[in-house]
Fold this sequence. Notes:
The chain is an alpha/beta fold. It is built from 11 helices and 4 strands; from the N terminus they run αβαβαβααβαααααα. It has a single domain, classed as 3-Layer(aba) Sandwich (Rossmann fold). The protein has a 4-stranded parallel beta sheet with strand order 3-2-1-4, with helices on both faces. The model has no long low-confidence stretch (mean pLDDT 94).
Amino acid sequence: MTLQQQISNWILNYLKENNLKTLVIGISGGIDSAVTSTLCAMTGYPTKLLIMPIYQNEEETIRGLNHCDFLKKKYNNVEIIKTDLSTIYDNFVDIIPIDYQNKLSLVNTRARIRMTTLYMIAGGCKGIVVGTGNKVEDFGVGFFTKYGDGGVDISPIADLLKSEVYALAKDLCINNEIIKAPPTDGLWDDGRTDEEQLGVSYDELEWAMLIKEKDANILLSEKDKNILSKYIEHRSQNLHKMKPIPVFKKK
């Protein structure tokens, strides 16, 4: 059984075991959501694809819509839902005192509004929200918004490294425009890529993650030391996202 079949069957079995009817997933125009949504569609269960721009780069939205059309033609269980959330975002920001707004909080607000939208749809069709994070993002450097794109019910590709996601994308015949596009979370007005935010590439992060897991006692070049340092810095800052919520225990 191929990897794509294994993951799709895992999603299917989860639905059956929990008496659920629908898969709901946000489509960004990036490779992770493209791969995950295809694996969902393969189950044969109703799959809702949500395009949720908030002042989105038009190129990203078009890539996402093209992918949705690709799946719609291939699978008859797919439904496309496009809802522009820009006005909702504006209204929300307008009622929050300006003193409590900064660029990062505004970016995370976009992700959380999308999460709320996904759960609204899922709640109306006995569905679950499907996560699109990969292993490097979810368990390496914590590159996601807490209770935003991190707020999901299941995570089908969270045990796959980014390179494995790319390999799976080719096997699934994902549109080449998505495979070639620089990874981005699509949350910043300046269109910055993931690599620009992280300061290192996903290939470098994968290397650092594997080296750190092995805790190998090897000699590193200055460049490698810098990559490893970046990985450790991001992981340390975001480790709270990867741990259970702290709970006071009474004695």
